[in-house]
Amino acid sequence: MSNLELAQVYKSNSLVEASYRLTVPEQRIILACISQVRRNEPVTDEVMYSVSAQDIAELAETDPKTAYRDLQEAALRLKRREVRIEKEANSNARRKEVLICGWVQTIKYVESEGRICLRFNKDMLPYLTALTEQFTKYQLKAVARMNSAYAIRLYELLAQWRGTGSREIELAWLREALQVGDKYPSIKDFKKWVIDTAVAQINQYSDIKVRYDQRKTGRTVSHIRFIFGPKQTQLEAKPKPSKPKKPHQITREEIEKHARPGESWDEVRSRLGRKAGS
Fold this sequence. Notes:
The strands form four sheets. The protein has a three-stranded antiparallel beta sheet with strand order 2-4-5, with no helix packed on it. A three-stranded antiparallel beta sheet has the order 3-7-6. The chain has a three-stranded antiparallel beta sheet with strand order 9-11-10. It has three domains: 1-145, Winged helix-like DNA-binding domain superfamily/Winged helix DNA-binding domain (Arc Repressor Mutant, subunit A), CATH 1.10.10.10; 146-232, Orthogonal Bundle (Arc Repressor Mutant, subunit A); 247-278, no CATH class. It is built from ten helices and eleven strands. The protein has helices at residues 13-16, 24-34, 53-60, 64-78, 141-144, 149-159, 171-177, 187-205, 252-258, 265-277; strands at 8-12, 19-20, 49-52, 82-89, 92-102, 104-110, 115-120, 135-139, 166-170, 208-217, 220-230. The protein starts with 7 loop residues before the first strand and ends with a helix. It is of the alpha+beta class.
C-alpha cells in the first residue's frame, strides 16, 4: 500500500474557493504534496516535498508508464501555474484583497527516479499550514482516480460544506472558480461537459453521492444547487423477524411427574410454564 493511500488533504477555505486551473496530473502532484504538509504547526518555505510516478500510479490506479510521462510534463508547467485568492483585508469583511501567486517557488524533476520535488510558494503556506479553523479536509484517495479536473474542484467545494448536505453556487462564480473562460457559453453545454461529468465521477470514485438541480433568476439559470451525502459503503443486513414461539403445551403426564405435594394442577401448570419461558 502506498504511503498516500491514507493521506489527508487540508486546505484553507479561501484556497478551496480560489480561482485557478490545473490539469489532472498537476492536481495529483499538488494534492499529494499538500497531504505531506503538517497542518498543526508552522512550516517554512524551505521544506521540500516529493512524490514519485509510482506513488501516483498506485494511488490513481493508472498505468505507471503514463504516470511517468504525465509527471515529467507536469513538472515543466507547474512552476508557471498561478492561483487567485480573495481574502479579507486586515480582518475587515467589507474590504477584500486579491492575492495572485504561484503554487511553487522551486520544482525539480529527478528523471532517474521518476520523482518530482517541490517547495511551495511562501505566500501559499498560510493556506496549507497552521490551520485551526475555516479549513476543508478530505482523503486524498477520494479524488485520486478522477480524470476530470472539474470533478476534483467540485468535490472540494462540496467537501467544504460536508456537514450541511447541500450547497447552492452562483453559476457565474463557479465558472470563474473553475477558470472555464469562454468555453461552454450555453448552460446546456456547461452542464454536459462540466457539471454532469464532474457529478458522474464524484459518484463513481469518491466517498459521497451527489445530484443537482438549478435555479433561475427570471428566465436565466443563475444558480446550481448540489445535494449530497456520504455513500453507504455497506448495507446493513436487516435481521429477519423471528417467529413467535408457540407456548409449550404441558401434558397430563408432565403435571403428574412434576407436581409437588399440595399443588393444584393449575399451580403446577403455571410453575412449569414460567420455567419454560425463563
